[in-house]
Structure formats: C-alpha cells, structure tokens
Design brief:
This protein has 336 residues and is mostly helical. Helices cover 68% and strands 0% of the residues. It is elongated.
C-alpha cells in the first residue's frame, strides 16, 4: 500500500504531465492499490465461453463515475459468420456445424433466401426436420419462386408422412419449372405416396423424357411395377439403372426381386450378390441371396439377357426425348 502511495507521488514528478493529467492518473493508481488489497484473498477467472460467445466480467465497484455508478466493460464484438464458412462445413459433410453457422448467418442476413435455404438443407441432412421445414418456409417467404426450397420442403414433408402438403409444394415447383426432370421425379414420389400409381408412372416417364440418365426415376418406376406384380415390365428399367450405376445396392436388390419373382433365380442370385458386394451390411439382400442361390430356374421360361433389356429401354427413352423435342419445336413454330 505504501509502495502504491509512493508511486502516486512519483507521478507528480514525471516530466511533460500537466496538472490536469496528473489527477486522474493518481486516482487510478490509488484505485489499483485498493483493489490489490481487497482482491488478494480470492481470485476467479471469467468464463471464456464457447467460440463466438462473449462472457460477462464483473466490474470493480468504484471504477466508474462519481456517485457509485458502474461503468460496464465493453464486450468483444461478435464476429459475423460468412456464408462461405457454412457452405464449406456443408461440403465437408459437417452438417450439424453447418446448421449452426447458417443459423447465425440468417440472424445477421435475414433477407437472403439462400441463407435460409442452406440452413434448411443443413438441418435436414443433420436429421432435424423441424428446423429444416421452418427454414425452407422462411426462404420461400422471401422468394416464393425459390424452386430448390420448394423441392426440398417437399422431401421433408414426404419424410414427415404429409404427402398432401408435399403435393402443394411440388405442384408450385412444377408451375415454375416444367422442364426439370427432378421436379417430375419428385412429383412421381408424391403420387406414389398418395397411392396414385398410374400418375406416378407417368411422372417418372416424363422425368426420363427430360433426362434419360435419371436412374432414380428408373428405380422408382420399376418399384411401383413390382408392387403391382408386373415383374417383366420392371426388368428393363432396373437393368438399365444397374448398367449405369452398378454400385448402388438398392438398384441391384430391386433387380433381384423382379428376377426372383419372375422365376429367374440364377440371375436373381447374381443381382443379390452384387448388392451384398456393394454393401455387406444390406441385410435384406443377404437373406435374399441365401434364399435363391440353390434354386433352379424353370426351364420353360424364355431366357433373357439383361444387357439387351437395358439397351432396349434406353432406345425407348431416347425415342421419348426425340418426340418431346419435336413437340416443342412444333409448338414454337409460328402459324402459317
């Protein structure tokens, strides 16, 4: 304490410090001395918090203006989250981290529909459908023509078991972009969930007429045909899907189902085997392979070759593409 008082006296002798400068310096030194005496018994470190947070630090009494007022210690400024930070986390499949970053971003930039869209996408990928739905709705409030938000909101609603609401959203997307194969494929899913199987098949064929390589439309359409016991009709689409994407286990498994139920056990075993090779934990395929691998084909069945079925299916799709292109050309031709 005496040392601090001496330091107060020494302030007066510092060259260049005028009288009106010395008074506050002396007062500050006196406060430091007093604080040293009172704080030496206990010392608590302030909680640093998590990154991006600011902690509250108590201000010593008497450090403010006269009359006992306390001057708050200014908190560190919160660093804004950039869109690119959230996007990078999403691309690296750190979906929970991406959700947090985009949640902060939309607080700073609530007017940007893409921020809400990416929050919705990140939340959906992290398994949080509640936040995902809310974020997609907010994106659409800011931009009703945001097709990607309409499509992914449709997917969330389907997963929630709400196909009628999903139909409203995908129909709105179709009105905005009728040339998108993705929109028609999703429309097919909605019709399928509503048990409107004929409409679903039409939607999948339309998707394929716009994108002949849409393997998921092939698979989904074939699955409806399998459910309707139309196994031979399902085979060409699945043969083509597995030709384009042989490493997708669900395609191989569905092909195996169509082959098995049409009595072609040898080819079914090959398809199930390919599904297991792609995913050894695919329990349904493992059980199906064990079930059919020792069964014999009916010799009365007409032999088929999957490669030929795939090529025939592709030719049919390309014919649809040509027909759609011709129809577009004719419709845009000026009247004579």
């Amino acid at each position: 304490m005496l040392r601090s008082i001496r330091s107060i006296r020494s302030i007066r002798s510092i060259p260049g410090i005028h009288a009106f400068d010395r008074a506050p310096l002396a007062a500050a030194a006196l406060l430091i001395a007093l604080a040293t005496v009172t704080a030496c018994s206990t010392r608590e470190e302030p909680d640093g918090g998590r990154p991006g947070e600011t902690s509250e630090v108590a201000t010593p009494v008497g450090a403010g203006t006269s009359g006992g007022d306390v001057t708050p210690v200014p908190s560190a400024p919160v660093m804004p989250v950039r869109y690119e930070e959230g996007e990078l986390a999403f691309q690296e499949k750190r979906f929970a981290d991406a959700k947090e970053k985009f949640a902060s971003y939309v607080e700073q930039r609530p007017e940007n529909p893409w921020g809400h869209y990416m929050l919705g996408l990140s939340a959906w990928k992290s398994g949080d459908r509640v936040v995902a739905e809310s974020a997609f709705v907010k994106a659409l409030e800011r931009d009703p023509k945001h097709v990607k938000s309409l499509l992914n909101l449709t997917r969330v609603l389907l997963e929630e078991g709400r196909p009628r609401e999903a139909r409203e959203r995908v129909t709105a997307a179709l009105a905005l972009d009728s040339t998108s194969g993705e929109v028609h494929r999703l429309l097919g899913r909605v019709h399928s969930e509503l048990k409107q199987h004929d409409e679903a098949i039409v939607a999948y064929r339309m998707a394929l007429s716009l994108d002949s390589g849409d393997v998921w439309s092939m698979n989904n359409m074939a699955l409806i045909l399998i459910q309707q016991d139309r196994y031979d009709e399902a085979l060409p689409a699945l043969a083509r899907a597995t030709q384009l994407e042989p490493g997708v286990p669900v395609f191989q498994n569905n092909l195996g189902i169509a082959l098995e139920r049409s009595g072609r056990y040898t080819l079914a075993a090959q398809a199930y085997g390919a599904a297991v090779a792609a995913d050894s934990g695919y329990r349904k395929a493992v059980m199906s392979l064990a079930r059919v691998q020792n069964l014999k084909d009916d010799p009365a069945l007409v032999p088929i070759e999957l490669g030929s079925l795939a090529e025939a299916f592709d030719r049919g799709i390309r014919g649809m593409l040509v027909g759609a292109s011709k129809e577009t050309t004719d419709s845009t031709r000026p009247p004579r």
